[in-house]
TrEMBL record:
InterPro entries recorded: APC8, TPR-like_helical_dom_sf, TPR_rpt
Gene Ontology process terms (BP): anaphase-promoting complex-dependent catabolic process; cell division; positive regulation of mitotic metaphase/anaphase transition; protein ubiquitination
TPR repeats mapped onto the chain: 347-380, 381-414, 415-448
Keyword Ligase appears in the UniProt entry: no
SMART domains given in the database record: TPR
Organism: Nicotiana sylvestris (Wood tobacco)
Domain Cdc23 per the UniProt entry, residue ranges: 7-286
Protein name: Anaphase-promoting complex subunit 8
Cited Pfam families: ANAPC8, TPR_11, TPR_8
GO cellular component, one term: anaphase-promoting complex
Alphabetically ordered keywords of this record: Cell cycle, Cell division, Mitosis, Repeat, TPR repeat, Ubl conjugation pathway
Length: 581
């Protein structure tokens, strides 16, 4: 039996089991991967709208011969054997009697109606592993529900609060006892890991979650919680995980969170070998390429995703960010209208509409939609960061700082929020604070030229005036594919200011070559031509100086008269040189 058939059989069983245990997010994820496996063409012909393997629209245009991900790869590639599937994991706990099963069905019905305490009560005397898990899980969610209610009652939907889930202590006690006596199953291990994580016992939570995914690898919720506890590559490498194809999904996602975007992309492209029609895999490839600022490829993938799954809202907020960055107002308007009709009370929908109003310059209305997104999910990171950007546009720096701080509280690795804090403090005339936040942002995202440019401009401020440091930052920006073409021009200007004519000429020439290649005109080109004309004149390289002066004659401003004066001087010096008195 091939790898695809193995994966298909395992996922079918996993969908039923996860659904039976009310782990609906994990069940949905497994079902999406199940239909993402390429079908046997003799039995099934995919629609022409589906992704095709090898299609240029979903593959990276350029791949290097050696992938950086290879040093991290420990899972066999698709098509080879992997660790044998735990046979007990695919079978249900068979200890249920008919009466037990009836109680379980009643409890599951209560659970599906969000009556968690009733579900817990019904299962109070049931001893099967399945019943114990559902009872504990229902109790955990009852505590979470009450916690949310108390947050709203005490602080309001967007306020900070120290409210905790009051059921964690009793759950930890019970699940710990089950683990110690060896009667805990993989699902209760997942729940135990979740409880430990909320209580701040990260090391033990990691160990417990590793046990859970090793004994039952198909629970994506357990993998997701484990990933959130892997904040460094060292922690990730220290995990003792069995080799199973689910590990590849986990590593790809973990690399993405650790900002190892090329490694993540390599993993997802490898997974396409089996899950070639998976919308999830395509969306993750788009995320990785978004982080690498390959916006053209990202746009193509999201357009294909929407054709394939027209009512999809997941990840569409990222698509809206791409359209916003490209200033595609009509496409963003269409996307906002589409998701609003599908489900206007999803945080992603509110964020997309907020992006649309921001692009239109209606910042107050944009903030209203970001706040609505946060009422629906107060931990929705993008909404906090984007709302901070809007407050910056509105010159409301205290509100911007508060929004950015909430974002870094949720995820200290969000470079955009640190960058936003730097901008806000720079606006308030506090460059030392701003510099501190810019340094944090470039540490998290060292390949983003915009962050290096922001830090360089901070060094250039009157209070700091650290031009050598600014030059170092602009050099880093120039080496990080500076799309805005700011770094080369600023490097030339700073070297000129420091009377380093040779270095200034070098950067002005590079900047000029780039502007010519991109067919850009403007004051920067005039400045470069003027400097190079004067520089070569002083170097007595008259022919080159004459070329730059002649180009300046095409302009109609004062630079034309300056160029004429320079040409007269050049010709006089050339005459003196050739015909000395």
């Amino acid at each position: 039996m091939g790898i695809k058939e193995n994966c298909r059989n395992e996922l079918r069983a996993a969908v039923r089991q996860l659904n039976d245990r009310c782990l609906y997010f994990a069940s949905k994820w497994a079902a999406e991967q199940l239909v993402g496996i390429e079908q046997d063409p003799t039995k099934y012909t995919p629609s022409h709208t589906r992704f095709q393997r090898g299609s240029s629209s979903i593959r990276r245009r350029f791949r290097t011969a050696t992938e950086p991900a290879t040093s991290f790869t420990s899972t066999p590639v698709a098509g080879t054997s992997y660790v044998s599937t735990p046979s007990v994991a695919l079978e249900d706990d068979g200890s249920d009697t008919a009466i037990d099963s009836d109680f379980y069905l009643l409890a599951k019905s209560y659970f599906d109606c969000r009556e968690y305490r009733r579900a817990t009560h019904v299962l109070r005397d049931q001893t099967s592993k399945k019943a114990i898990f559902l009872r504990c899980y229902a109790l955990y969610l009852a505590g979470e529900k009450r916690k949310e209610e108390e947050i709203i009652e005490l602080e309001g939907p967007l306020g900070k609060s120290d409210v905790v889930n009051k059921e964690l202590v009793s759950l930890e006690r019970e699940l710990s006892a089950l683990r110690k006596n060896g009667t805990i199953d993989s699902f209760c291990l997942y729940l135990y890991g979740l409880v430990l994580k909320q209580k701040g016992s990260d090391n033990l939570a990691r160990s417990v979650l590793v046990e859970s995914v090793n004994s039952y690898p198909w629970n994506w919720s357990a993998w997701s919680e484990l990933q959130s506890l892997c904040t460094t590559i060292e922690t990730l490498k220290s995990l003792n995980l069995d080799n199973h194809w689910m590990k590849d999904f986990f590593l790809a996602s973990a690399y993405q969170e650790l900002r190892l975007h090329n490694e993540s992309l390599a993993k997802y492209e490898h997974l396409q070998g089996t899950f070639s029609f998976s919308n999830y895999v395509q969306a993750q490839i788009a995320k990785a390429q978004y982080s690498l600022r390959e916006f053209e490829q990202v746009e193509v993938i999201f357009e294909e995703l929407l054709r394939n799954d027209p009512y999809r809202i997941e990840d569409m907020d990222m698509y809206s960010n791409v359209l916003y960055a490209k200033e595609c107002c009509s496409a963003l308007s269409y996307l906002a209208h589409r998701v609003f009709l599908t489900d206007k009370y999803r945080p992603e929908s509110c964020c997309i509409v907020g992006n649309y109003y921001s692009l239109k310059g209606q910042h107050e209305k944009s903030v209203m939609y970001f706040r609505r997104a946060l009422k629906l999910n107060k931990n929705y990171l993008s909404a906090w960061t984007l709302m901070g950007h809007e407050y910056v546009e509105m010159k409301n720096t205290p509100a911007a700082v508060d929004a950015y701080r909430r974002a870094v509280d949720i995820n200290p690795c969000d470079y955009r929020a640190w960058y936003g804090l730097g901008q806000a403090y720079e606006m308030m005339g506090m460059p030392y604070y701003a510099l501190n936040y810019f340094k944090k942002s470039v540490f998290l995202q060292p390949n983003d030229s915009r962050l290096w440019i922001a830090m360089a401009q901070c060094y250039e401020t009157e209070q700091l005036h650290m031009l050598e440091e600014a030059i170092k930052c602009y050099r880093r920006a120039a080496n990080c594919n500076d799309r805005e073409a700011i770094a080369l021009h600023q490097l030339a200007k700073l070297h000129a200011e420091l009377d380093r004519s040779d270095e200034a000429a070098f950067y002005y020439k590079k900047d000029l070559e780039r502007m010519e290649a991109e067919e850009r005109e403007g004051p920067n080109m005039v400045e470069a031509l003027m400097f190079l004309a004067r520089y070569y004149k002083t170097q007595k390289r008259f022919e080159e100086a004459e070329v730059y002066c002649t180009r300046l004659l095409d302009y109609s401003g004062p630079e034309k008269e300056t160029a004429k004066s320079l040409l007269r001087g050049i010709r006089y010096e050339m005459d003196v040189e050739h015909f000395p008195p």
